[in-house]
């Protein structure tokens, strides 16, 4: 692949304003724009999504307070103590791009709190369980849980627009959306070093594992998206009040790559500390993911064998975190 520079193509911006009250026709129009963006880039921005700015600001504020804590405090809630991969992920813990140095980012994983009696916890389902919260930041939990709930509802709506865009009934992904694995990841990227190791980056080139990712990023920029059209990296700069949405591996598998789960990476060249908050909507763990028959033209074969959400998620965590 090419250097760390980018070309100037821009990702589409889709305004969702009023989507909840939209007529059938308006929803069809919106879904057609989403479909086009998914085919061309696998990435798009959304505005008019209805998530309150004050909620986003409070979450960013808790996030920066968390990463400012002394290392020894953060390490007390290292995700290695959690059966459900919840908690602190130290700097360089993950290598998203095989064969390159580990990612220059630290993180904090949050999901819905599931009691030990929850059937999915009893069944030892992947990433279902309890969070680990920092005792120093009592406000993080209510803000993060509020955010998780709101984002989950937004993703359900987006999945129904994706269904429409594929000429499927709008409730086609209903079962996938039921009792989903939904993960919030607070991320902190130190500035890119002046003399980085070869190929060292904030976040190595990767595709996202789940259904949809909705990314909130601060004003520093640094996200780059691979364009198969121009065969080069393009910038996905922050646009105030928007989310960057991208298609994950599940949707690529359903559509036989008609909708692209696109490579992306982060290089924090801003010289500042960068903060971002991706929300990963991965769906119901038992859901089978195999090519949707109407997404397979007569002369094509499915590119991927059938899998389940859980199987794919486990494989991808093992691949990028090794045996940790
Ligand atoms: O921080 C970002 O801008 C992107 C993070 C990302 O791609 C991920 O966590 O999967
Ligand atoms: Fe990603």
TrEMBL record:
Pathway: Alkene biosynthesis; ethylene biosynthesis via 2-oxoglutarate. Transmembrane segments: none annotated. The keyword Protein biosynthesis does not apply. InterPro entries: DIOX_N, IPNS-like_FE2OG_OXY, IPNS-like_sf, Iron_ascorbate_oxido_reductase, Oxoglu/Fe-dep_dioxygenase_dom. Its EC number is 1.13.12.19, 1.14.20.7. Residues 180-283 form the Fe2OG dioxygenase domain. It holds the Pfam family 2OG-FeII_Oxy. It catalyses: L-arginine + 2-oxoglutarate + O2 = guanidine + L-glutamate 5-semialdehyde + succinate + CO2; 2-oxoglutarate + O2 + 2 H(+) = ethene + 3 CO2 + H2O. Keywords: Ethylene biosynthesis, Iron, Metal-binding, Oxidoreductase. Its cofactor is Fe(2+). Belongs to the iron/ascorbate-dependent oxidoreductase family. This is 2-oxoglutarate-dependent ethylene/succinate-forming enzyme.
């Amino acid at each position: 692949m090419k250097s760390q520079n980018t070309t100037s193509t821009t990702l589409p911006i889709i305004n969702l304003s009023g989507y909840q009250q939209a007529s059938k026709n308006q929803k069809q129009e919106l879904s057609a724009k989403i479909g086009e963006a998914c085919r061309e880039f696998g990435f798009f921005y959304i505005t008019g999504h209805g998530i309150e700015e004050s909620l986003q600001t409070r979450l960013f504020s808790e996030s920066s307070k968390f990463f400012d804590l002394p290392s020894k405090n953060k390490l007390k809630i290292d995700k290695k103590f959690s059966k459900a991969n919840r908690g602190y992920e130290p700097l360089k813990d993950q290598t998203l791009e095989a064969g390159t140095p580990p990612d220059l980012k630290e993180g904090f994983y949050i999901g819905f709190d599931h009691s030990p009696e929850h059937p999915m916890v009893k069944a030892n389902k992947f990433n279902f369980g309890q969070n680990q919260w920092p005792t120093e930041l009592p406000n993080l939990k209510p803000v993060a849980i509020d955010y998780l709930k709101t984002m989950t509802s937004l993703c359900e709506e987006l999945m129904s627009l994706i269904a429409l865009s594929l000429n499927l009934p709008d409730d086609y992904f209903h079962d996938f959306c039921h009792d989903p694995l939904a993960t919030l990841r607070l991320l902190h990227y130190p500035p890119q070093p002046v003399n980085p190791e070869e190929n060292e980056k904030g976040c190595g080139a990767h595709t996202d594992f789940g259904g949809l990712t909705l990314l909130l990023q601060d004003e520093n920029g640094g996200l780059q998206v691979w364009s198969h059209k121009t065969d080069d990296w393009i910038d996905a700069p922050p646009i105030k009040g928007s989310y960057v949405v991208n298609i994950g591996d599940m949707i690529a598998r359903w559509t036989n790559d008609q909708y692209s789960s696109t490579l992306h990476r982060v290089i924090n060249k801003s010289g500042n500390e960068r903060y971002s908050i991706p929300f990963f909507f991965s769906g119901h763990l038992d859901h089978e993911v195999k090519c949707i028959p109407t997404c397979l033209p007569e002369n094509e074969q499915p590119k991927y064998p059938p899998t389940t959400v859980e199987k794919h998620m486990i494989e991808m965590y093992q691949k990028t975190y090794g045996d940790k």
